Automatic annotation (TrEMBL):
Name this protein carries in UniProt: LysO family transporter
Single Gene Ontology MF annotation: L-lysine efflux transmembrane transporter activity
InterPro entries tied to this protein: LysO
Transmembrane regions: 54-77
Originating organism: Thermococcus argininiproducens
Keywords assigned: Membrane, Transmembrane, Transmembrane helix
Length: 79
């Protein structure tokens, strides 16, 4: 489903009824966010992965990110 269609419809409804709607959207948004996180967790739990391989890839990626940041910081200090 295209995410921009509901977004644009929501913006239009909010713009057209901005002075007429006087209720808080905090609770519905919190409930929707919690449901989204729950269903993302359910979907993530269904995926079968090799956790050790993923750990190694994550550590390598994090190390390269840290080393790259340090390198850029050192090059920036010298100039």
């Amino acid at each position: 489903m295209n995410i921009f269609i509901p977004l644009v419809v929501g913006v239009l409804i909010g713009y057209l009824f901005k002075n007429k709607l006087r209720f808080s959207m905090d609770k519905p948004m919190s409930i929707a966010l919690l449901l989204l996180i729950f269903f993302m967790g359910v979907e993530a739990g269904r995926v079968e992965i090799d956790a050790f391989k993923l750990l190694i890839y994550s550590l390598v990626f994090a190390s390269f990110t840290i080393l790259g940041s340090l390198f850029v910081a050192l090059v920036g200090v010298r100039k």
